[in-house]
Design goal:
single chain; 133 residues; mainly beta; Jelly Rolls; 5-stranded antiparallel β-sheet; 4-stranded antiparallel β-sheet; 11 strands; 0% helix; 44% strand; elongated
Length: 133
């Protein structure tokens, strides 16, 4: 029998939410024009946000969804998203990892209120539920 590794491989996918380039700032789920797909059943381990243009809103908040699940709690209300800010927001529950739905899904930004300006890059780390070495 040949030696076979059963070590999972961590992968990263990204999305760019850009109000500057026409992504909606209206309340609701926004799928950025530049986004990635998280496969069904993936184990999502972390979310990192890099703000490339200050995110502004008079009353709005944002959350990150991915793989068909809400990943973070409100970000804008608890963190100043100013230019060159890098943040690793906590998951929306006390979980240290989340599992994507069976169907998986894109990385989305959930907006409450209205976002008037801002650009962020979202990086999501995950391991596939099944892997082949």
């Amino acid at each position: 029998m040949a030696n076979k590794s059963f070590n999972p491989v961590k992968r990263f996918v990204s999305a760019e939410y850009s109000k500057t380039n026409g992504d909606s700032g209206a309340a609701g789920d926004v799928t950025p024009k530049k986004t990635s797909f998280i496969p069904g059943g993936a184990i999502i381990t972390d979310v990192v946000i890099h703000c490339t243009k200050a995110v502004t809103s008079s009353s709005g908040t944002i959350k990150i969804k991915g793989g068909g699940r809400e990943l973070t709690g409100d970000i804008l209300s608890s963190n100043a998203l100013t230019i060159n800010t890098v943040a690793q927001p906590a998951f929306s529950s006390s979980a240290t990892a989340k599992k994507a739905t069976d169907a998986g899904g894109t990385i989305d930004v959930v907006i409450t209120g209205t976002i008037t300006a801002g650009d962020i890059t979202i990086h999501v780390g995950y391991m596939e539920a099944t892997h082949h070495a």
